[in-house]
Amino acid sequence: YWIVYPAWPLVSSNTTGMFGYSSRADVAVELANLEKVRGDKMVALGAASLADIEKDPALLALARAKGKTVFGDNCAPCHGSGGAGANGYPNLNDDDWLWGGTLDQIMQTIQFGARSGHAKTHEGQMLAFGKDGVLKGDEIVTVANYVRSLAGLPTRNGFDAAKGEKI
Ligand code: HEC
Q: pLDDT digits over 80-113, tens only?
């Protein structure tokens, strides 16, 4: 064994043995093979449609594993590492979606954002009452206070509840 395999430590190296075996070289070959297999699969993943990925268990497993890393790097700061959300950031674990929970809708959200100004972004239904001149400044203050009263929150002194309800 001492003669044919790497064995004895020398000052800055070791005896290499007659077979020229090196575990490091083996690892390098294995890593290169793994990279190649992974690389091919990643190309396949990028080229496949969402429907095809859902149908192919191998691609789906790869997408989930890769997605977990991407989520941790890009999404977790706002949505939480498990997607549970936080104040101002929607929970992605429940069945309650602002912009739709199908794979296509979620992909659209990630690609174009919400209210981002892009032509394909999700648009909200609410009008810009102030900017579009539908309501005047004091009416907005009144109706904002009325909304607070609906939620049982404190309102500004002297706010006209009846007028708020009418608006
Ligand atoms: C800077 C904080 C931030 C980051 C980073 C972020 N998001 Fe969001 N995300 C939000 C906010 C805020 C909303 C709500 C947007 C709205 O409705 O206007 C949202 C909405 C969503 C929605 C729609 C939820 C629903 O109920 O329909 C999905 C899905 C989503 N994000 C996924 C992701 C993914 C995946 C990533 C990472 C690639 C990501 N987000 C990164 C803040 C963030």
A: 988 998 888 999 999 899 999 988 899 999 999 9
160: tokens are 């006209």
Q: Which residues line ligand 1 (CB under 6 A)?
A: 74-75, 77-79, 89-90, 92, 97-99, 106, 109-110, 114-115
Q: Contact at 8 Å (CB) between 35 and 41?
A: no
Q: Distance (Å, rounded) from C-alpha 59 to C-alpha 51?
A: 11
Confidence of residue 29 (pLDDT cuts 50, 70, 90): confident
**CA 39 from centre of chain:** 22
Report residue 83: phi and psi, to 5°: 80, 15
Distance of CA 55 to the CA centre of its chain: 22
Mutate to test the pocket of ligand 1, among 92, 93, 106, 115 (most ligand atoms within 8 A of CB): 92
Burial of 59 (0-12, 13-18, 19+ CB in 10 A): middle
Alpha-carbon gap, residue 116 to 120, rounded angstroms: 9
Structural tokens at position 157: 């002194």
CA distance 146 to 160: 8
